[in-house]
Design a protein that fits this description.
single chain; mainly beta; 7-stranded antiparallel β-sheet; 5-stranded antiparallel β-sheet; elongated
Length: 202
């Protein structure tokens, strides 16, 4: 029995790492990687187009963003917002008409009145000089749906867990009926801004 005790102790002693002393204190190093998201515009975006002055038909506009994140829909809200400049200040450029999403573009040199935007927002556009509305088409493999966010009409992107996403929002060719008029809409550059916002959830 005595030999066995000595033998056991001897094995235990040999199994102790030689870099440990008789007094042991462990310092555990921890690295915390927070959830993060980065967004950039893609060079393949089509930011400029011309229109046919007879009918307002435009040859193609497209906003393309890339999102890289280690988070997901539980961590972030991925939101597309829009804006256009009017005589009354900056307004939301998205508008719903018969449950379809449109983007209003305003004349930069002859700023539209806010009543022109309100006319299109009414659902039955009739008089809206210097604003033209075009349909918004989702060409992304992700679900993008119009919602009210922070008090305004926006588009929410549902990532479905994807962490590298190309978000493509295409502007359709044909203007919303009664939003283009060769006699009411002055010649010039018409513009709207589409912005991708990433909001961390509480």
């Amino acid at each position: 029995m005595k030999n066995k005790l000595i033998f056991t102790f001897f094995l235990t002693l040999l199994q102790v790492p030689i870099c440990f002393g008789t007094a042991v204190m462990e310092s555990r190093l921890t690295l915390i990687v927070p959830s993060s998201a980065v967004v950039k515009t893609m060079t393949s975006s089509k930011n400029n187009s011309g229109i046919n002055p007879q009918n307002g038909y435009q040859s193609g506009l497209e906003a393309i963003f890339n999102i890289k994140t280690n988070g997901d829909d539980n961590t972030y809200d991925f939101i597309l917002s829009s804006s256009l400049e009017t005589l009354g200040g900056i307004k939301n450029a998205y508008v719903l008409n018969n449950d379809n999403l449109y983007l209003m573009l305003g004349n930069k040199e002859h700023l539209p009145d806010t009543t022109a935007a309100a006319d299109i927002e009414s659902g039955t556009p009739d008089a809206n000089p210097n604003i033209i509305a075009y349909p918004v088409i989702n060409n992304s493999p992700f679900d993008i749906k119009p919602i009210n966010y922070n008090g305004g009409l926006c588009c929410q992107i549902l990532s479905g867990g994807e962490q590298d996403m190309n978000i493509i929002q295409t502007i359709g060719n044909t203007p919303l009926r009664n939003t283009y008029s060769v006699s009411e809409d002055n010649a010039g550059v018409y513009e709207a801004a589409v912005t991708l916002n990433i909001y961390r959830k509480p």
